[in-house]
């Protein structure tokens, strides 16, 4: 975990006086751009190993999340789960329904009525992960847990717990940014 934290500090934590607009629409002086870590062999392996530790005891056979941040995480955990002898099947949820071909919202492997784990790179208010949960629930599936690499401590955990979904984060924003520092 310590090495993953170092990689996030080095490659993913950005600061700007002008601020960044987050997916939630909020503005922040700090931004976690996890793509350089997610698309790095060491970083993705560390994320998959850490998340798998929180998943292996779950009663779920499927793992997925909202495009695009969840896609490399899902793929890495699927590979790792196969190597560990507890294979999981993966899927991802499109932000918008595909307008051609199969016109699916959910791509990959997901059977109706399944128990699933949702993964996310960064959660802020929980709106993005709630979209993934909503789509999965439309298929009659149950979300047993949500796991984020980073939780920005801006309401996601409370929102998820409010709908009865357990949320775990490998790290929280205050692991990287002091609580008294500007948002």
Describe the protein.
Helix 3 crosses helix 4 (70-83). The protein starts with a helix and ends in an 11-residue tail after the last strand. 36% of the residues are buried. The chain has six helices and eight strands, in the order H-E-E-H-H-E-H-E-E-E-H-E-H-E. It has one domain (2-175): 3-Layer(aba) Sandwich (Rossmann fold). The radius of gyration is 16 Å and the shape is globular. It is of the alpha/beta class and 183 residues long. The mean pLDDT is 92. The chain has a six-stranded mixed beta sheet with strand order 5-4-3-6-7-8, sandwiched between helices. A two-stranded antiparallel sheet has the order 1-2. Strand 7 (142-151), helix 6 and strand 8 form a beta-alpha-beta unit.
Please mark out the parts with pLDDT under 50 across 5 or more consecutive residues, or reply none.
Answer: none
What's the helix-strand series? Answer: HEEHHEHEEEHEHE
* Neighbour order of strands in the largest sheet: 5-4-3-6-7-8
- Beta strand %: 25-35%
- If classified by CATH, what would the architecture be? 3-Layer(aba) Sandwich
Count of helix runs: 6
Query: Residue-averaged pLDDT, rounded?
Result: 92
Bulk shape:
globular
Q: Could you say how many structural domains there are in total?
A: 1
- Describe the largest sheet: 6 strands, mixed
CATH class: Alpha Beta
What is the alpha-carbon Rg in Å? Answer: 16 Å
Helix proportion range = 25-40%
Q: Tell me the CATH topology.
A: Rossmann fold
Overall number of strands: 8
Give the structural class: alpha/beta
Termini Cα gap: 24 Å
């Amino acid at each position: 975990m310590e090495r993953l934290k170092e990689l996030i500090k080095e490659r993913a934590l950005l600061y700007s006086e002008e601020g960044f607009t987050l997916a939630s629409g909020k503005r922040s002086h700090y931004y976690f751009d996890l793509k350089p870590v997610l698309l790095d062999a060491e970083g993705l392996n560390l994320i998959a190993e850490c998340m798998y530790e929180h998943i292996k005891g779950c009663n779920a056979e499927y793992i997925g999340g909202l495009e695009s941040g969840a896609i490399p995480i899902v793929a890495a955990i699927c590979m790792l789960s196969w190597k560990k002898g507890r294979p999981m099947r993966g899927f991802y949820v499109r932000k918008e329904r595909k307008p051609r071909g199969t016109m699916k919202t959910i791509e990959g492997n997901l059977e109706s009525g399944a128990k699933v784990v949702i993964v996310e790179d960064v959660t802020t208010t929980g709106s993005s992960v709630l979209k993934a949960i909503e789509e999965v629930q439309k298929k009659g599936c149950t979300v047993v847990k949500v796991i984020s690499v980073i939780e920005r401590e801006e309401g996601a955990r409370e929102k998820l717990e409010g709908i009865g979904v357990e949320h775990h984060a490998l790290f929280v924003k205050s692991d990287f940014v002091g609580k008294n520092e500007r948002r």
